[in-house]
Amino acid sequence: MPRFSLAAAAFLLALLPLAAAKAAPAAAKAKAPAAPPVPPNITALMSKGGCKAFASLVEASPDALSTFRSAVEGGVTAFCPTDAALRPFMPSYRNLSADGRASLLLFHAAPVYYTLAGLKASNGPMNTLATDGSARGYNFTVQNVGDQVSIRTEAAGAAAARVRDTVYDRDPVAIYAVDAVLEPVELFDTAEAPAPAPAPAADAPRAAGRRARHRPRHVADAPGPAADDDAAPADQRKNAKRNAAHGGPRPRWLAAIPAAMAVAAALV
Ligand SMILES: *[C@@H]1O[C@H](CO)[C@@H](O)[C@H](O)[C@H]1NC(C)=O
Ligand SMILES: *[C@@H]1O[C@H](CO)[C@@H](O)[C@H](O)[C@H]1NC(C)=O
Ligand SMILES: *[C@@H]1O[C@H](CO)[C@@H](O)[C@H](O)[C@H]1NC(C)=O
């Protein structure tokens, strides 16, 4: 009897690894459907939430689209102007260069996830996806009055944009519909600035100085003829001149290269 038990135990022990080996693939199979969640399609969400025209502009700007997409992974709060709010702004939008357009679109999102409650608790300046790391700028002011969240810029004639609707809110992405386009002072004159001089003065030093704060960050991204076709030629020329004069700001992705190379070096 004891001898039989030992034999049985040995037999069972011999089978054990086989059973484990058989069970392993089954477990892997069961786990496979639980793939990592797909990041939300931010432009599709905006479209569904009443910001179809704004979403189309983002999709038509490769620079803005790629920045929005990568921001979705790290946390983002977007403020999309409704179609009714965007319509009257379109002539001004078309007047911007490709760089200016990308900056304007990126000005409509903060690189931080805010719930509506979090937003109501954050009065004051807020950086955006258009904010340049070192030069700052492209920030707006969040202002809460009662239960109403508003966003203000110093651009002349720009109305405060009021948050009208929560389009989407699931950590780490929030999208709120606003009832006005946010105008950065870097692209639109401030209230104190004198009225624009007539055409011949456009290239005069004084005019250049007043607009020097407009520092396009996307210079390196727009070399192709396709990009040139898309830009307002006059604005493009001015940008080229300013970039020659100031050496041009470093695009953010360029600043990321040394860090990426350091990581690569550490891996090998
Ligand atoms: C996001 O949705 C838009 C439609 O609104 C579609 O054109 C686009 O291809 C989608 N992008 C991705 C990455 O799925
Ligand atoms: C667009 O630019 C032109 C030429 O600079 C100017 O005359 C016109 O007023 C601008 N339109 C808007 C809506 O800004
Ligand atoms: C906001 O941007 C302005 C330029 O438009 C800059 O002078 C100011 O320092 C910025 N504020 C913050 C808090 O970054």
TrEMBL record:
GO terms for biological process: plant-type secondary cell wall biogenesis. It holds the Pfam family Fasciclin. It is found in: Cell membrane. PROSITE patterns: FAS1 (PS50213). It is a lipid-anchor; GPI-anchor. The keyword Secreted does not apply. SMART domains: FAS1 (SM00554). Residues 1-21 form the signal peptide. Residues 208-217 have a biased composition (Basic residues). One of its GO terms (cellular component) is side of membrane. Residues 193-250 are annotated as: Disordered. Residues 38-182 form the FAS1 domain. Belongs to the fasciclin-like AGP family. May be a cell surface adhesion protein. This is Fasciclin-like arabinogalactan protein 1. It comes from Panicum miliaceum (Proso millet).
